[in-house]
Amino acid sequence: MELDFSDADFLRDPYPALGRLREHAPVSWHAPTGRWLAAGHAAANAVLRDRRLGRFWHDREPAAVYEPFNLLHRNQMMENEPPVHTRLRSLVAKAFARGHVERLRPAVDAEAAALLAAAGPEFDLLAEFAEPLAVTVIAELLGVPGPDRHRLRPWSAALVRMYEVSPSAEAEAAALTACREFAAYLGDLAARRRAEPRDDLVSHLVAVRDGTDRLSGDELVASAILLLNAGHEASVNALGGGVVALLRHPGQLARLRADRTLIPTAGEEMIRFDPPLHMFVRTAAADVPLPGATVPAGAEVAALLGAANRDPAVFAEPDTFDVGRDPNPHLGFGAGLHFCLGAPLARIELQAGLAALLDHAPGLALTAEPVRRPTFVLRAYTAIPVTTRPA
After folding, report:
1. Domain count, the chain
2. Catalytic residue selected from 130, 174, 235, 356
């Protein structure tokens, strides 16, 4: 069967079609995109873990046009395999592991509470809570000064449109502008931190070494932008989509209100049930047998994370939202070599956001249908109108 990644009904709710694809075959050929699609959990997990299936960056052509985008991607860990990936991830992880994530937990809790205190009885959960929370957290982590933080979300939102199946010419032009401006800003910030180091991640990325090795200027900028994009784009969409799912399942919301120890498992279920990232593409370096098909050398195969996360072979009642689901081996953070480095930070944000909503928005409910972004790879809303007035 064929999927139409541009169909409005599919984009609104892709799960029935993804389920039919998974039932048809765990791995199938998709002629419109020229890719193999891995829809079963075992198949998608194998795609993410098999070292013969990798991220091998090829500059987009014409290279002169796409150089701002290519520069950021050829120098980041997510688009490379060992030994380049090993080196970049090791250096970034050394800086990332210096207590940065745990030191932010009290600040995340405080920021979430402050945002809800400032919101009125009716507000946009996305624009007035999820987005500013994520931007504040990742900006605090990296050391982006307060007056500059409003620039991060527009840059990130424009850049990630390039990852869709068929981005428009307008989306590509906006993304390239964002790449240029984003890179110039981070390069300048790195230069300032090199001159005057602080206790933030950019300063530590500037200083980190492995023997005599260190990140080049382009590698540092690409790594910082990757962390910014993944750190707040995914977090915004995970919290937004997760809260919508929770509000549409009032029994589960009541269960969570009655038992706060379920907040961690509720966060994992949010990512499983409606993941912010739906597709992760790999290229075969050799013929690779997968459940139901062999992907030939040179071909692309996409792990469909949303389909895998609802595989009944792994998840009991997979279309049911269950805040206490345990175990929950979802693939929302990826798997294998490219497992999300920022997963601990994303979990802290999700848990802090949930706890704040339970504490400070006791009457939380949707006031209108949330507005979907018409994209598939990055699944998101553009507005989530809510009220805190009890019904």
Report:
1. 1
2. 235
